[in-house]
From TrEMBL:
Organism in which the protein naturally occurs: Nonomuraea rhodomycinica
Chain ranges passing through the membrane: none
Record-level Gene Ontology MF annotations: DNA binding
Record-given protein name: Helix-turn-helix transcriptional regulator
Amino acid sequence: MNERLRTAMLRHGVALEDLAETCGVEPKTVERWINTGRVPHRRHRWAAAKLLTADEMYLWRDVLESSQARRGRANQSELVEVFPDRASVPRELWLRLLSDAQEKVDVLVFSGTFFAQTQPKIARLLTERAGRGVAIRLCFGDPSAQSVETRDREEGLGGTLAAKIRSSLTYYRTLPELDGCEVRLHATTLYASLFRYDDDILVNPHAYGEPASANPTFHFRRLDGGTMAEHYMSSFERVWSGAVPWSGAEI
């Protein structure tokens, strides 16, 4: 028996016939909803929930459980592959994701030196994508930021991280001049390097005291009903919104 539905009807003075008329069904159908716990079609649930000023997932708990199960399956399906460290990500995958991008390419790193080293023609590739209407957003660490100094110390880099950032930026000096290309500098504590290509995103989390290259990398692909890929895509947006535009000038 669906006690929640029965109680909601009693509290609002809604008779079987009233709910049946609102939902466009027979009163016997409403009886089955109450007495057998049968879950109505979606449009009927919405109509009933509106009449009873209640959440459909409260009135029909199975809907919530079903929704959670679907979300769980979607999240599992979003995980395409796990690499034990960033160096294990095939160069071909980086190139394919970039060349296949149709809408956007987002990169969030401190220095991202490897990004250019594994793709020597990175500026040309990004320029070509931008020319095809792909929005390019690159976000590097600000060499003068305290967060860069802290990460340098934590990873035992001996004061070289700021120099690595400046060196890495030289690859992208001409990009800010192009339509559809933006480069910014951030001062955040970077918990994960992010590389987004449309609905695909490579996530390289940072473990304390370890260089980014030694940490695992997760490949997610956004799916309807999933939350994993969107979780990291939203993180990029938050960092990007507080980052400072870089014009290409030497810093």
